[in-house]
Amino acid sequence: MNRAADAPVRQGIRSAQLGILSNASLAIIKLIAGLVGNAFALVADAIESTADVVSSAVVWGGLQVASREPDDAFPFGYGKAESLAAAVVSLMVVGAAMAIAIEAIRGIRTPHDEPAPWTLIVLVGVVAVKWWLARRVKVVGTNIGSTAVSADAGHHLNDAITSAAAFVGISVAVIGGPGWQSADDWAALAAAVVIFWNGARILRPSIDDLMDRTPGTEIVESIRQAANGVPGVLATEKLAVRKTGMAYRVTIHVQADPQLDLATAHVLSGKVKGAIRQSVPRVQWVLVHMEPYEEA
Q1: What is the 3-state secondary structure (H, E, C) of the chain?
Q2: Distance CA 228, CA 104 (A)
Q3: Tens of pLDDT, residues 206-222
Q4: Please, what is the average pLDDT of the chain?
Q5: Nearest 10 degrees: CA dihedral of 266, 270, 275, 277?
Q6: Is the pLDDT of residue 267 over 90?
Q7: What is the CATH T-level fold of the domain 217-292, as seen in this structure?
């Protein structure tokens, strides 16, 4: 893979590595603070961070596989590995939400001591770090067009939501005193509902990519206009676009003068490919089918 094409992959891998390092550190801090400070919402938050570590590792692996060049076994490339990684991350989010909900319900039904006030300081720092990390990774995912990296950013945001909910719950439990100990469990349960919804929401783009759903009209129309703008192209039809990894694959039927010889038609198809790739740089593969022009 050339340097230009490899740059987005390197950006995605660096964001995944940053996520692994940050989440591993936060998970340890939150788990210790939650156990020592008797705050289940913080323990649930640690579970979410642990899932984030695994999800970032999955994204890292998916991007590395997706960056491989096509070969005889996979002539269309390995780009779908990126979408598979995004789907795995989304399912992990849903699974983490269910685990947190089960433990939260168990804590609500079982009386326990109120959480320690100092755990709130830990949560303030955690929310700040995770919010920054979610925004940073989201920018990378949007810039390189990676469904997996964007899903990982959503996972970081979920962790920030869990931490914020834990802060509210522990605050209520500390201020309310006896009788309000389960407030942090209710906060964990509320966070689990939000996390489940977000996990289901970020699952859809990965499924769309795996099912070769047509991208937005903006991409499709840009490709069509680029092809129609090439001198010698009289009409276009049967335009199909699908996303593979962080790139697009295009199949388009181009109509031209029926009197063109084969060599000239071949040159024209090359110009169409160049125009499309210049208009939409994320298009890495174009198949042009030449047809004689016929007036409607």
Answers
A1: CCHHHHHHHHHHHHHHHHHHHHHHHHHHHHHHHHHHCCCHHHHHHHHHHHHHHHHHHHHHHHHHHHCCCCCCCCCCCCCHHHHHHHHHHHHHHHHHHHHHHHHHHHHHHCCCCCCCCCHHHHHHHHHHHHHHHHHHHHHHHHHHCCHHHHHHHHHHHHHHHHHHHHHHHHHHHHHHCCCCCCHHHHHHHHHHHHHHHHHHHHHHHHHHHHCCCCCCHHHHHHHHHHHHCCCCCCEEEEEEEEEECCEEEEEEEEEECCCCCHHHHHHHHHHHHHHHHHHCCCEEEEEEEEEECCCC
A2: 59
A3: 888 888 888 888 889 99
A4: 83
A5: 140
A6: yes
A7: Alpha-Beta Plaits (3.30.70)
Q: What is the mean pLDDT of residues 14-22?
A: 81
Residue type, 181: Q
Assessment of whether the complete model's pTM goes beyond 0.85: no
Among candidate residues 272, 264, 174, 197, the one with its CA nearest the CA of residue 227: 272
Give every CB contact of residue 267 below 8 A, 6+ residues apart in sequence.
none
- Residue 96: name the closest of 223, 198, 217 by CA: 198
User: At residue 24, what is the residue type?
Assistant: A
- What the block records as the tokens of 49 is 């961070």
The percentage of residues in the chain with a pLDDT greater than 70, rounded to a whole number, is: 95
- Which residue, 16, 32, 42, 192, is CA-closest to 127? 42
Residue type at position 215: P
Domain boundaries, the chain: 3-210, 217-292
Amino acid at 286: V
At the topology level, CATH places domain 3-210 in Alpha-lytic protease prodomain-like (1.20.1510)
Q: The sheet that has 235-244: what strands, in order across it?
A: 235-244, 247-256, 283-292
d(CA 277, CA 249): 10
Taking the CA atoms of residue 6, residue 157, residue 28 and residue 89 in that order, the dihedral angle to the nearest 10 degrees is -60
